[in-house]
Amino acid sequence: MAEIGPLSSETSFSSGALTESSSNIASFSSTPPTTLSPDSMSLASDPDVPKHGSIVTPLLDAAIPLLEDAQKAQIQQMERDFDRKPRNTSPPAEAQEPNDQSGRHTPVANAIVVEPLPEEPPFAGRARRARASLPVYNLAKLSGTRPYTKRVANGEPVDSKRRRTIASDTPATDSDETANGDTDVPPKAPEPVQDGIDAMGLDLPAAAVAPSSPTTPNRARRIIKKPKSVKLTIKSTKSTPAPAASITRRATRLSGEPVASLTSKITALGKRSRKTVEKGLDRMTHELRRLQDTNEFAHIDTRPVRYTVWSNGKYIDPDAPEEEAAATPPRKKARTSESATAAQPDKEPEIDAEKKEATGPVPKKRRVKKWLDRGLYSGQDTPVDVFQNLNAQDKKKLASLPELIRPVKPNKTLPSPMYNGLRMLMNGRDFKLPFDICSPLPPGQPKPAHYRTMTKNRFVGDASAYWKKTPHFGDFASKCVCKPEDGCAEDCQNRIMLYECDETNCNVGKAHCQNRAFQNLQERTKTGGRYRVGVEVVKTSDRGYGVRSNRCFEPNQIIMEYTGEIITEEECDRRMNEVYKDNECYYLMSFDQNMIIDATTGSIARFVNHSCSPNCRMIKWIVSGQPRMALFAGDRPIMTGEELTYDYNFDPFSAKNVQKCLCGSPNCRGVLGPKPKEVKPPKPPKETKKSVKGTIKTGKRKLKEMLAGGDEEEPEKPAKKVKLVIKKAKKPSLSSAGLKAAKGAAKSAVKGATLIIRRGVASVSTNTKLALGSSTKKSTTKKAAATRKSITTSKKSTTTDKEAPRVKRKYVKKNTPRVKVSSRSSSLTTIVAAGSASEKKKTAGPGKKTPKTKKMTPASSAKSTPKKSATPSSSVKVASGRKRTPSWKVLNSASPDSEMAAGDAVSAKNTPSSAKSRNALDMARSDKIWVVDDDDE
Ligand SMILES: C[S@@+](CC[C@H](N)C(=O)[O-])C[C@H]1O[C@@H](n2cnc3c(N)ncnc32)[C@H](O)[C@@H]1O
User: Ligand 1: distance of its center to the CA of 576 in Å?
Assistant: First the structure.
């Protein structure tokens, strides 16, 4: 690299050097010389340095005049400043411009070249291109005129520690290197440079001026690379407390009280940097200064005071006549008044005055407060007297309490809470939200792990074929005879038969029909959503999963459908013995004889638990010819969040399988079992039994004949071995009575067969009403009375008993399968259990005979000849067990509050439909039959 001699030497401006210099000079013109390198100035002012005027080339001379006067003045000022400073004169050799490693010319040389000489005007500055490479200093900063306060870092003023960066190519070399005369090593910084640094007030730390490593050729470069100084600066800025005086303002108009700064008032940005604050302050000050003297700023309202009247958020114009104001709506009134004012601005007051005189003062209408018709206490009694149920002593004691001593004049409007707390507490009533205030509950309930749903029933195996053979499959289509005003209420024949109305069988039409529960359910739930579905599975604390309502339900409203696979009894047995043999509980519900709904894969209705005081009922319906089963609300509304339950009427069969009931109701039976009345039904009179024995030989077939034939011949020989006990529950009996009324055959039937007909006409009617969801009590009672009458007129065997057990049941001998004949009506226990036929076979062994009971029961006959005997209502479910100890579980016993049988009588009486009457007859017969093998007893 060619050494560039110091510019102070004239020899350096040889041709070669000149070229280089000229290139540097050319660079001077790159930027306007707003700033000036102090070191260059110092060099220029150094007396030892030869005056550059003698060495300036003509080119430079041409460039000098370009310097503006102001700049020149600046430069001169700087020169004077530097001249005043004592400094060492540097030898020309030291003033030589050191080259950096890249061989570039340092700006020192340039500075020397462009050093203006006061004696030699015109000094026009330096060429612009060279200027660009010069270090740029902020003169304002250097001169201390910049409005920055001193910053402090670590307790010291930043100025003293601050590392300022100099231009990267500033010659800053170690003195040692220069002393050695080693030309390869960058020479020591020339004094003028140091002076310049000093002038800037830069106090470089020792580390900064330490001998630099070969990789760091000079101090300045190293300093540039150190970002720490920046960090320090920031830190110190942060740590420096903001000058309160600069921010705190004083109210100019007031008494010098300090007020919050404008910035803090205006901005909501919170903590900001000082720069931002100052910037914002400046800006706001500038903007607000103009407003400072305004009235708005000082909150001085110079406008005339105008009094306005507002009522209920509306402006009342005092000038407007009251009538008009009351009659016209505000907007219209405003427009009218405007137009009137525009038309006759001067006459208006006169007109108003005239009007006022003519009409006189209009009495103000008193606003009537609108009270909510529903609330916490709606539908509840007024508070009772707190002393009501107390004895005299307690009353006296209570009355002596200071809190309860009545004040002379109680302040009813705003009673002081201090002395009325106790009274209010005592007067307070328990409340329950009205049931129809619905609010879906929050999610988050644990759900069953394996949970497969099926929203529609599905026939499996022979079940479909079997169902198609049942009379219900075709009978449902016969039309009801309702009128639109009836609305398919309780008298609707379809309803009585538990056939849901649809377009094919309804005489009324959808608009008026009330017998479309399943359709309503479908419409309600088709959109989905927690509220519409209205139920959700919840985890109970002690009974596994359960179902709770997610909304409220009206009494008797349909809630959800019990769906699953419809299987035959054989399939049920198979599943019980093979598939569900290890299950804890089963989800099997008998719909009809040989028709079981297995909800193991089904709707969430299977999770509904049992309660001895249930709030729901499980009812079987036929919808469009298909068997359906659904959970309906009971006779009271259901609130949001209530657990839904129905009475399983669970029959555990053996003590082994008895489960403790955890329903927690006051009348809990203690175990999951049948209702008490069912456990011990009142024994029939002996004569009746005898007569039964004497009259009935065979099972259901004979009985049916008798019932159907009416006047058929009496059996000649009383059966010896078979005891047929026909217990007529209220509904069956009612059905029977209805049939009698319809056909006139009951008399003889009862005559022939000694029946124990237990009737609860009143309760039946009630149940019917509930189940049907309607409540025309009067007519129901009438019918009940009529039915009662008809039954009372029957023979001695007919008895009327309001409190008769709803489910008829007779226990048989130990280990003997109990056979029960139930109807489609949910009033009778529906059985699902293990064992039944297959179990019996197992128990009996291959060589043994099937127990007689099996043969004798209508169940068996129904099973063998479903077409003949299996009236859909006579479902015989033989409880099934597994292995040797049959696990007899009655998982489903639909609510005994059946609706169907109750309606049978009415239907039989009223309906012209022979098919329906026939079905009612079938049901009536089958529902009441309990067959017990003589041998077993
Ligand atoms: C059809 S399941 C009902 C859903 C069942 N809780 C579950 O988690 O799957 C019937 C079984 O629930 C239990 N259960 C239902 N109601 C009950 C009650 N009130 N007390 C005790 N256990 C009950 C019994 O174990 C019964 O066998």
Answer: 18
